[in-house]
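haha ok so turns out i had the wrong file open the whole time. this is the CORRECT one, sorry everyone. sequence first:
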Amino acid sequence: MSVPSKMKAIGFTQSLAIAEQDSLVEFETNLPELKEHDLLVKVSATSINPADAKIRIRSAQDKTLEQPKVLGYDAVGEVVGKGTDVEGFELGDRVYYAGDVTRMGANAEYQAVDYRITAKAPTSLSDEAAAVMPLATLTAWEALFDRLRVRSEEKKSILIIGGAGGVGSITIQLASQLTNLTVIATASRPETEQWVRDMGADHVVNHRNLVESVREQGIQHVDYIFNVADTKGHWESIVELIAPQGMISSIVEFDGGIDLSALQGKSAGFVWELMFTRSLFNTDDIQKQQDILFQAANLIDAGRIKSTLTTTLNGFSVETLKDAHQRIESSSSIGKTAIKY
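then structure:
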């Protein structure tokens, strides 16, 4: 296919409330220049993540950016160009990826992305159903197997705080399908309770009274805790529930501090998970993200993992993206929202 020299993109130059007129703006720009490891992708669908709202709110609070920052950290699209050192991809391939937070995101007609953090998209999913998967899947997989270092054969337990969101939903599925862990997930409404059970949770507990709710299930302590909701707000409960020599991981940063010393008596560990670490620092194992996405696509196409898509918004426009941001900022959504271009 012929590729134009210009493209439409949507971004921001100031950190504004999403309801304000210029919180997101459409503009025309040149197609991105390809580095040696890059694919050029014609984007067909993306999804909204908490990262989009956080970056929009924090990146330009006291300044105006010279060039609009383009968000979008999930995408599905067609390869229409590639760099000199790309291996394993051809023009016309349908791919999915989360991308790199330091580069232009997927809220554009075309995007350049490193092939080492990209994989061929699941063939069994529509563009929108596939677009909600990369960031959450990478985060969940890395948390389980790289940060918590869960071994698939061990018969232990994991508590997932924030089970009904995008990352929690995938973590439940991966833990259920790829490990022998007893999976405990939080939910507080009938619809979210049903959702996490459908994802594969063995036990559902209420985050509003976490310790008591877990122990009502006959569980005194848990071996692993993965927090995707509120690290600081749940910290005392996390400290109480973690087993001696257990491991805790979180994706939710916070202001101020927490009492890490509270874990000393149990010799428990705490480790952060940030899906963008490998691309931010171009780590030696950066290509592991391609491998994770490849394995996830196989699991999806085999029917073992299902898409967490619950809402699809249609059309690549400022209005559609503002709607998506408002949904993610409400903090009450189940599953994921996709935008079909």
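The longest strand covers residues 38-47.
again sry for the mixup
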